[in-house]
Amino acid sequence: MAINLSNKKPNSAKNVSHSCRRTNKKQKVNLQVVRLEDGTRFRISAREKRTLMKNDKIAA
Asked: Which of 15, 49, 56, 59 could connect to 25 by a Cys-Cys bridge, CB 3.0–4.6 Å?
């Protein structure tokens, strides 16, 4: 089981149809599983993963 590191939660928004009727929808966070060399797995958002890869903190 992977551990959640980010405290991000789904965003609530409105779905707007062609006739401008509004219904609620959820925009879920794009969580990715990252495995370290020692075998531990973490769930972080895609943006955090990209930042860590850019700064050479984790491998691709």
From this structure: 15
